[in-house]
Design a protein that fits this description.
Elements lengths: L5 E5 L23 H13 L4 E5 L9 H10 L3 E6 L6 H10 L3 E5 L4 H8 L3 H14 L3 E8 L7 H11 L3 E6 L18 H21 L6 H4 L2 H5 L11 H4 E4 L4 E2 L13 E2 H4 L1 H5 L2 H13 L15 H19 L6 H23 L4 H13 L13 H21 L1
Parallel strand pairs: 1-2, 1-7, 2-3, 3-4, 4-5, 5-6
Antiparallel strand pairs: 8-9
Helix pairs in contact: 1-2, 2-3, 6-7
Length: 410
């Protein structure tokens, strides 16, 4: 199966805005402490994840956010923040730079009038100021838009904003009712049937213009599904990679199979009580994922993983994995730990380049970041001489157990 790529921390439900398409701030929940999040970060690193995404609510409302970003970087993880931008003044941008953040996603819903209608008066100017401050401190930025009936006509404007203020990427995600307390309101954000064609033509122009500007966007196949999805048509992928690549965690530490499937009866567990490392590798999670695949997921177009596998592609992935395992079996004399290290480094390099590529990073920038990560690797807990020996032995045993299980299944 594909390896874990990103862990998404919905670090708080608190927010300084009250956007029309989001009721998250109205749901008050307990939050993990900084020390508890640090343990989760260490586990994410042990699992081979590449990126921690801090979202909310508004993550910058947590005073310890800079500490957690810095801790992620020290554990050899990329750090990304999704923010409304209203709190990113010059001082905050300087602190983000000092903490080592890799990418900051800023929400821009359209032109000033549209944005302020959806997010509140004065919020557009603050979001633009955030992009300016990020550019001043040479922090990579992304423009993110939640597409709905209210703002799809301004879609192309997001590319102009990205071009003017140096954002490397524009990521679109269609409105989803999971962010509303009252699901009956979702019709307010959907488009009429006669608008589908118009939005489809705009998507085509969006893709062409992004290519012309050299701005990275979601995959074309994903974008082309948005018009019918916003007209109320369900989207059911054959198999969605979010079940393996992405790991969503709520503010109180609940681990979900994915944002859409994460209901009360489908919680994998709580990372503060049981640990992310143990839960991610648990039989309970494997059984839950298998059940979702067999029964079919609820369907979505969330951009946490916007390239859904087709069954043919999934078979190719599984077939490729089987061939690799057979080759490994012929070298049983090599220790399980060495195999784990080789495979994790190969995956780490490929995933890291995919991460920076998805945010429009240039090859020299990728190379510089990779070299910094390599020469600074002594801080990584896996290579630190002071690392927990018990955890090291547990990893060896777990790798050996999983490898033998895979070989028996061939």
């Amino acid at each position: 199966m594909p390896d874990l790529r990103e862990v998404i921390f919905s670090i708080t439900n608190k927010c300084n805005l009250r956007c029309k398409m989001c009721d998250i701030p109205y749901g008050s929940v307990a939050e993990l402490t900084a020390e508890q999040w640090k343990k989760v970060i260490r586990d994410a690193s042990r699992l081979g994840a590449q990126t921690i995404v801090f979202s909310g609510g508004e993550p910058l409302l947590r005073q310890d956010i800079y500490e957690l970003i810095s801790f992620s970087r020290k554990n050899n993880l990329n750090a990304c923040i999704t923010s409304n931008g209203c709190l990113i003044d010059e001082q905050a941008a300087s602190k983000l730079k000092g903490a080592g953040v890799n990418v900051v996603n800023i929400s821009i819903e359209g032109k000033k009038e549209t944005h302020d209608f959806l997010r509140g008066a004065g919020t557009f100017d603050k979001a633009i100021a955030a992009l300016k401050n990020l550019k001043r401190y040479k922090i990579e930025s992304t423009v993110a838009s939640t597409v709905s009936k209210y703002n799809y006509k301004d879609m192309l404007y997001s590319l102009e904003v990205a071009k003017e203020y140096g954002a490397t990427t524009v990521r679109l995600q269609p409105f989803n009712s999971i962010f509303l307390k009252d699901d009956s309101r979702k019709g307010e954000f959907l488009i009429d049937k006669d608008e589908v064609g118009r939005l489809s033509r705009m998507i085509d122009e969006f893709i062409r213009t992004a290519a012309e500007y050299g701005i990275a966007v979601n995959p074309a196949d994903y974008l082309l599904k948005i018009p019918e999805y916003l007209n109320g048509k369900d989207f059911y992928p054959a198999v969605c990679g979010a079940l393996w690549y992405s790991c969503p965690i709520n503010p109180n530490g609940d681990l979900l199979p994915c944002w859409i499937e994460g209901t009360n009866d489908r919680l994998i567990g709580n990372v503060a009580k049981e640990g992310l490392y143990e839960l991610w590798l648990s039989r309970k999670r494997a059984k839950m994922i298998k059940g979702i695949i067999n029964n079919g997921c609820k369907g979505c177009l969330m951009s946490c993983y916007d390239e859904a596998f087709t069954r043919k592609q999934l078979k190719e992935v599984l077939s490729g994995n089987a061939r690799k395992i057979k080759k490994i079996a012929s070298y049983r004399k090599i220790t399980g730990r060495l195999l784990q290290l080789l495979r994790s480094q190969r995956t780490r390099l490929k995933s890291r380049f995919r991460f920076y590529g998805s945010y429009g990073g240039s090859f020299p920038a990728v190379l510089r970041r990779r070299l910094r990560a390599f020469f600074g690797s002594s801080r990584h807990p896996k290579r630190d001489g002071r690392a927990d020996k018990t955890g090291f032995l547990d990893e060896i045993k777990e790798a050996k157990r999983r490898l033998e299980k895979e070989i028996r299944s061939i």
